[in-house]
Structure formats: structure tokens, C-alpha cells
């Protein structure tokens, strides 16, 4: 998606020893709603042949993207995996584990109420980044626990130089990344895959 690549080049900031790409000015802190609606339409175009019953993401950064993609998929429900259990969630949940790079590689549980994922449903995963693949692997696990089917994963930005894309594709999951980064460096900038 050329508009996304241009936006990353213009507004993205590389940090943390060239390991972190900050796109929080438009994607995952302050959100450019019109641009995210365009991203949602692009996901719909890429998954046009797929029946989608539900969109699943993980809190927090994926929620806005998933919600703005849902109208392009005939307003299917959006469910997000929670990281913290609250009093209003009973014990009837699907549970998996994530090791997040941005959380300091500290593992944490994620869960979805069994009320919101059902056997036989066709589920589209949506997230902002794909790097090491831990979050997507955990979401795939939740879908499988529910007896549902993953129809694919829509990713806004994939760091193709990290192992996550190969890991998820190796599980047989169709991954559609709108921008695939080949390399990034504070001095040399960002290079995209063809």
C-alpha cells in the first residue's frame, strides 16, 4: 500500500538501536481515522474472497485498526484479546501466552471470553505490527481452542527482517501485510520489500 509506505517514511521514527519503529502519530497512539478507514478497505480488498464472521485482535494497538476495518467487512463483530482479567470476566475463557518485544520480552497471558469466539466461525486476525510473531501465534491458538478457523492475518506493518512472518506463514496462515520493511536504520532510513 503505497500511501502507507509514504506515511511511514514521512512520520515514522526509528528508535531503540534500530529495533523499534514509532508510528504513534497516526497508527497506534494518535490515530488518523480517515487513513485507518482506508487501511480497512485495503484489508477488505485483499481478503475479498474470504468469508469473515469475526475480526480478532489484541489490546491495545490493534483495537482501533480492527474497529475501523469492520465496516469494510459488513460490520462483523470485533473481539479483542485482553491482557488483564477484570471482575466482569468470568472464568469461562480461552487463554494463551504472549512474549512481546515491546513489553521487554516479558511473557503475559491473553484471553477471550468463550462467549465471543465460537466453533466453526471464520476469523480474520488484524494487528498493527508483525515482528517476532508471538502475539499472532497466541491469537491463532485462541481461535483453534474455540474450534474456529483463521482465514488470515491482516497486518499493517511487517518487519520482514524479523522471524514473525516466516513463523506465521509456516503455520499455514495467509498473511497480508500492507507494508513490509526489509531494513530500517536511523541514519539510512527505511527500505521496503518489493
UniProtKB/TrEMBL annotation:
Mention one GO molecular function: xanthine phosphoribosyltransferase activity
Top EC category: transferase
Q: Which residues bind 5-phospho-alpha-D-ribose 1-diphosphate?
A: 131-135
Q: Domain of life here?
A: Bacteria
* Primary location class: cytoplasm
This protein's pathway reads: Purine metabolism; XMP biosynthesis via salvage pathway; XMP from xanthine: step 1/1
Q: Which UniProt keywords apply?
A: Cytoplasm, Glycosyltransferase, Purine salvage, Transferase
Under SUPFAM superfamilies, the record lists:
PRTase-like
Q: Which GO terms describe its biological process?
A: purine ribonucleoside salvage; xanthine metabolic process; XMP salvage
EC number of the protein: 2.4.2.22
User: What is the annotated localization of this protein?
Assistant: Cytoplasm
Q: Name one GO cellular component term.
A: cytoplasm
Which InterPro entries does the protein's record reference? PRTase-like (IPR029057), PRTase_dom (IPR000836), Pur/Pyrimidine_PRTase (IPR050118), Xanthine_PRibTrfase (IPR010079)
Detail which positions bind xanthine. 21, 28, 159
According to UniProt, the reaction catalysed is: XMP + diphosphate = xanthine + 5-phospho-alpha-D-ribose 1-diphosphate
Where the record annotates domain Phosphoribosyltransferase, the positions are: 48-160
Q: What does this protein do?
A: Converts the preformed base xanthine, a product of nucleic acid breakdown, to xanthosine 5'-monophosphate (XMP), so it can be reused for RNA or DNA synthesis.
Q: How does it assemble?
A: Homodimer.
The record's listing under HAMAP family reads: XPRTase
| Record-stated family | Belongs to the purine/pyrimidine phosphoribosyltransferase family. Xpt subfamily.
Protein name as it appears in the record: Xanthine phosphoribosyltransferase
Amino acid at each position: 500500500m503505497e500511501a502507507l509506505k509514504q506515511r511511514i517514511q514521512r512520520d515514522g521514527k526509528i528508535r531503540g538501536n534500530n529495533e523499534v519503529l514509532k508510528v504513534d502519530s497516526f497508527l497506534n497512539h494518535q490515530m488518523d481515522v480517515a487513513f485507518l478507514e482506508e487501511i480497512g478497505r485495503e484489508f477488505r480488498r485483499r481478503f475479498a474472497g474470504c468469508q469473515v464472521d469475526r475480526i480478532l485482535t489484541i489490546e491495545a494497538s490493534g483495537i482501533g485498526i480492527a474497529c475501523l476495518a469492520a465496516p469494510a467487512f459488513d460490520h462483523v463483530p470485533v473481539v479483542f484479546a485482553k491482557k488483564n482479567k477484570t471482575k466482569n470476566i468470568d472464568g469461562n475463557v480461552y487463554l494463551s501466552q504472549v512474549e512481546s518485544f515491546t513489553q521487554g520480552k516479558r511473557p503475559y497471558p491473553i484471553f477471550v471470553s468463550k462467549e465471543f469466539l465460537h466453533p466453526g466461525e471464520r476469523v480474520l486476525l488484524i494487528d498493527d505490527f508483525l515482528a517476532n510473531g508471538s502475539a499472532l501465534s497466541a491469537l491463532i491458538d485462541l481461535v483453534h481452542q474455540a474450534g474456529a478457523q483463521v482465514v488470515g492475518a491482516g497486518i499493517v506493518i511487517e518487519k520482514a527482517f524479523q522471524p514473525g512472518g516466516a513463523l506465521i506463514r509456516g503455520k499455514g496462515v495467509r498473511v497480508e501485510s500492507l507494508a513490509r520493511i526489509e531494513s530500517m536504520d536511523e541514519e539510512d532510513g527505511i527500505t521496503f520489500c518489493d
